[in-house]
Amino acid sequence: MTFRLATWNVNSLKVRLPHLLDWLGRAKPDVVCLQETKTEDANFPLVELHAAGYQAVYCGQKAYNGVAILAHSRPQDVQHGIPNFVDDPKRVIAATVGDMRIVCLYAPNGQSVGSEKYQYKLRWYEAVTAWLKDELVKDPNLAVLGDLNVAPEDRDVHDPKRWAGQIHVSEPERAAMRNVVDEVGLADAFRLFEQPEKEFSWWDYRLAAFQRNWGLRIDHILLSPELAKRCIACSIDKTPRTLGRPSDHAPVIADLR
DNA sequence: ATGGCCGAGCGCCTCGGA
User: Which in A94, A114, A120, A206 has the greatest CB count within 10 A?
Assistant: First the structure.
């Protein structure tokens, strides 16, 4: 019996709800972390998700950001935002599902290297790292999923020369993500396994980037040592990106024993 | 690869995304 964790930046839950429901039926994940729901809590599509067999906890706002965790049983001990880090955008929600602590993250985009939003992105990462260290002490079964907006290595970039030093791949951003992985002691589930080359989770809407596979791997599943031991597979599901009116991101899936 | 796309808002252009 496997337990399937997934993360998907849906880029508007309202627009993507048909895709999400279709994908839930096909992929049958046990836990799903959503980002960029762009939906106020009052408008969250609880009825449709209940009908599909999922409970949900969520934290949203109008137009931008917004995160949610879906599971067959109602997620418990819900935490909104990063403790001791004042932040307006709704980027973080955490909850307990079964024996796992699930952290759903939507990292800041950063806009351009050196900008004010870039500095904010790096500060946000520092706060996340400090928080997750505490979180792992409290619960060794820790899974961190989300749109981390960093392509950690050149092999996660379709054209590393073209992207060198740019937002999402700059060294300080990579160091910030490495800190989460190394200082907290997590594992990038995708790299626990042999993978095909040029596997990405995001492709620009412009210039037929998906058809050309001009993408980045910026959506990640990070597992604590206890959960990494149980992980038997990790992959990116490109199917929803091939459909009409797709999200620009594809779901990432990890299977655990 | 970068004009070119997409979603949201009180909206027919602008902002933000990545």
Answer: A94
